[in-house]
Amino acid sequence: MSNTKKAYIAGGCFWGMEDLFRTRPGIVDTEVGYLGGQNENPTYKNHPGHAEGIELTYDPNVTSLKEILDYFYRMHNPTTIDQQGNDMGSSYRSAIFYQNEEEKAEAEEMIAIVNASGKWSNKVVTTLEPFTQFWTAEDYHQDYLVKNPNGYTCHFLRFEESFIKG
Predict the structure, then answer these.
(1) pLDDT in tens, 44-97
(2) pLDDT in tens, 30-44
(3) How far is CA 120 from the centre of its chain?
(4) Among 52, 75, 85, 151, which residue has the least CB neighbours within 10 Å?
(5) What is the domain count for the chain?
(6) Which of 10, 13, 35, 65 is catalytic?
(7) Catalytic center at which residues (predicted)?
(8) SS (H, E, C) the chain
(9) Quick count: other Cβ atoms within 10 Å of Cβ 4?
């Protein structure tokens, strides 16, 4: 696994994002957790400022960060501030946690591509936040929709066609 990379994103309830990403080509592992908040060792009941997010381990020989972000922008609504479906609050914000300036530039480029596409009627409000630490969520949240196939999710593929041309 030495040739893998990690990406950190948030786009609403982490269950649905994990469920959709787990089967994507090049995704080696998924883990749900908390990112970008104010306390150490956050829990579901105590995660002030943290977003419900996902750690994606991927094989860069099979997929790229740009392709991951393309899919991310097709499976959640990035135009609502602190909301996905019925879930409201900063925990459910759309965010990309970049690990270096190259990732930040790729995220900015994807936001420009998504906005220019006109597919969403409003502009993207995804925040770009420097990655600090990923805190793994409680075990009962991991693979939640596999364990509970009728569980709640607000994530689904809204656009079949990629934002990336070619």
Answers:
(1) 998 989 999 999 999 999 999 999 999 999 999 999 999 998 899 999 999 999
(2) 999 999 999 999 999
(3) 18
(4) 151
(5) 1
(6) 13
(7) 13
(8) CCCCEEEEEEECCHHHHHHHHCCCCCEEEEEEEEECCCCCCCECCECCCCEEEEEEEECCCCCCHHHHHHHHHHHCCCCCCCEECCEECHHHCEEEEECCHHHHHHHHHHHHHHHHHCCCCCCCCCEEEECCCEEECCHHHCCHHHHCCCCCCCCCCCCCCCCCCC
(9) 15
154 is catalytic: no
Overall pTM > 0.90: yes
Residue 46 counted as domain residue: yes
Q: Is residue 90 part of a domain?
A: yes
Residues in the chain: 166
- Domain holding 77, by residue range, is 5-147
| Distance set, CA 149 to CA 34, 50, 121 (Å) | 23, 26, 31
In a domain, 155, yes or no: no
